[in-house]
Amino acid sequence: MESLKDFLIPFDALMAAIFVLTGYGFWRSDGRAARYIAGFNSKSEAEQRQYDTGRLCADFGRRMVLWSLCFIVGSAVDCFFPGIGSALAWGIWLVLLIRHVVDMSRHEDRYKRQP
Question: At a CB cut-off of 8 Å and minimum separation 6, what does 28 contact?
Fold first, then answer.
């Protein structure tokens, strides 16, 4: 079990670091990171101008930073129960990701600029 612990704890920490850095990058980009959002970059330039990209990127960034907490907690749980924490982190993250995708598809208009 020690070798599993030696792999999972750094792996969970790496995933948390990736989400924190990516989320912080989106959060502080002032809308410039919108081009990396799937679906948004396929809209025409006229459609893209209708959106508040600063708010969109800030919300995406905050969600990514929140996702990192799953892996931080998972890493802590892996210290005591190797494998359980990582599985828990991935499961919770998957639920949050699906919730994010559903939320964005249903409420995309909340990021449109007010006329």
Answer: 61
